[in-house]
């Protein structure tokens, strides 16, 4: 390092200079301007207090390339070197007792005696003579650099951002980065400031990327109608489907593992023995045939399309009659159009036990029917006995007698009941013993 050759102590320098000074002839031409009791203020380079004679101060000025004038005070042996003279700034020359002000020009010393710094080789830096007679420039930190402080110090500036690099994810939201360098300009090696952050961002910038949604299942579509197996009621199966959204591959993409369909899932269709009833007539066994939807908890009618005598027999038997009677009752159709028609195209083979097990178009799959087309039935009504009355008391209070009971033919049936209306039973009461 250059600093190793520096003579750091001024004292040492001064004593050596005295020696050198002795070897050369120094000329001192007194000035032809007022200099006694004057001092130049405001251009100080440096000062020192061990200048035993004005010529020592003069030589220091000659040795310093920047020195243009100096102030000397004999009383304190103070030497002040100035970088300007009163020719540069007349007003800077002020009165001050005990001082003497002199310009560099008042002195002369051969060049070789002045040392390496006398020619002011450092420009904007400070020259320091080294022990081997050479010089070293000390530059103002952060302002000048280079061997002779000739190069302005450059502070760093950011270059342009590079392109955004790849996103961290292929779907959903990820992050990507871009980079820049402190190279516009690159800071000087000595004294150049590095680039500063801008809004907390240095050389890396991050941003959200890729807002393409990841594949995922769509909602299941609604279940299909519960399809009963062999009949139109009872246990059945149903199915539903879904799709993988956003170009996903089902059972491959993580968001879409599983099946696209669910089929054959057990379900309960309408009960096979949903109740039937006859309405709209006061005559027993007659009326508009209604059927109960146990899923919607609602009664409704049946359209007479394809309704055959087979169907009528099954419906009547299901309601407890022996079958259907010939003819159709005349009943005022239901006027409420919002009242549901539940079945149409009911076709029974004749062996079915309930109407629901016959084929039909499906519950509520009714087209082209109005309540004018509702099935109305007249079921065959057998004359029916009413309940037996309780047995009467025994006809005798002592010995063997009879008990009787009676029944009446149901007046709603309109026919003749087969069988007897009276019934008797022998009885014996054991109250003949006089001892009792
Ligand atoms: C400088 O000041 C000293 C002390 O006040 C005085 O004795 C001397 O005469 C002055 N010299 C000049 C040239 O005015
Ligand atoms: C010294 O600095 C000034 C500005 O401060 C500049 O104009 C001048 O050129 C510099 N001198 C040298 C020798 O670099």
UniProtKB/TrEMBL annotation:
As given in the record, the signal peptide range reads 1-22
Q: Per the database record, which ranges form the Apple domain?
A: 29-106
- Domain of life where this protein originates: Eukaryota
Repeat keyword on record: yes
| Pfam families xref list | PAN_1, SRCR, TSP_1
Under InterPro entries, the record lists: Compl_asym_regulator, Pan_app, SRCR, SRCR-like_dom_sf, TSP1_rpt, TSP1_rpt_sf
Task: Return the protein name.
Answer: Hemicentin-1-like
Q: Which organism is it from?
A: Saccoglossus kowalevskii
